[in-house]
Amino acid sequence: MKSVVICGSRRFKQEVKKFAAELQKLGVDVYAPHHHSGQEEWNALPKDYQKFMALGLTHDHFHKMRLADTVFIYNKGGYAGPSTTLEIGFAVALAKPIYALESDTELCRHTLFRV
Exposure winner among 4, 11, 46, 78, fewest CB in 10 A? Predict the structure, then answer.
């Protein structure tokens, strides 16, 4: 594996940062999500700006997914929220190999993950 894009919920942002750093120490090129600072700051933004930012962040992450050799789903406790589910679908459309931290109980997603 030369490069990996990490997909996962904002709730795991600190753990994803640590995981990305460990992979980089092993010589892997890592494309990590850009998780904004916090929910309070996000909620303070006007709704139209939130929509604009979400669109930009989504397209930025899709670009990272195109660049990466493989996709890694950081789904601690089996959790993959709506955005991560969207990213899994995009990875499938790109025919990228998908790996996950943990098994997924949602049957459709689970069948897409490689061991």
Answer: 46
Bridge partners (DSSP) listed for residue 79: none
Tokens describing residue 100: 């996950």
**How far is residue 104's CA from residue 3's CA, in Å, rounded to a whole number?**
23
Give the tokens for residue 16. 């994803």
- C-alpha pair distances (Å), 24 with each of 19, 28, 39, 86: 9, 5, 28, 25
Token readout for 104 is 């997924």
Cα 5 to the chain's mean position, in Å? 7
Per DSSP, 114 falls in state B
DSSP secondary structure letters along 17-74: HHHHHHHHHTT-EEE-----S-HHHHHHS-HHHHHHHHHHHHHHHHHHHHH-SEEEEE
